[in-house]
Write a structure and sequence with these properties.
The protein is mostly helical. It is built from seven helices and two strands, in the order H-H-H-H-E-E-H-H-H. Helix content is about 65%, strand content about 5%.
């Protein structure tokens, strides 16, 4: 049996990021369950925390997803009373999404997610922020089209 031409999985950054994502989701799950939302719903709420009243398309772009992927979690969040959808008065094709008071309160409550990651990482908040900046810079480099 010959040796694989690929480096071991643990030496591949793609695998490290993949397994880190799984670990983050596992860490978040009990807290998200307690809040009554899923990770995709948390991401939608986070976008609205940055830009309340964003369109479905804007939310999808921010999360690097298709609009059709965003609609189901938005509908479930609306059904839960955490946000509301309104058609644009100037362009009926556009649907704006607004947080309710309950949605804003849940965003405040969800701060525990980031706090938990920092705590479990063993990094200081400043080190954690620098690490996140490195990951974002790496992502930006991958997305650049030369």
């Amino acid at each position: 049996m010959s040796a694989s031409p690929l480096p071991p999985l643990d030496d591949q950054l793609c695998f490290s990021l993949y397994t880190a994502n799984i670990a983050i989701n596992r860490a978040y799950k009990p807290m998200l369950d307690d809040m009554g939302i899923t990770y995709p719903q948390y991401l939608v709420l986070s976008v609205l925390g940055e830009q309340d009243g964003a369109t479905i398309g804007t939310i999808a772009d921010r999360l690097a997803l298709e609009s059709s992927t965003i609609t189901p979690p938005v509908k479930r969040l609306e059904h839960a009373g955490l946000l509301e959808r309104r058609r644009s008065k100037t362009d009926e094709r556009q649907v704006h999404v607004w947080l309710t008071d309950a949605g804003r309160a849940l965003i405040v409550r969800s701060k525990c997610l980031g706090d938990t990651l920092i705590e479990r990482s063993g990094m200081t908040p400043k080190e954690f922020q620098a690490f996140n900046h490195q990951v974002r810079s790496f992502l930006g480099a991958l997305e650049r089209k030369d």
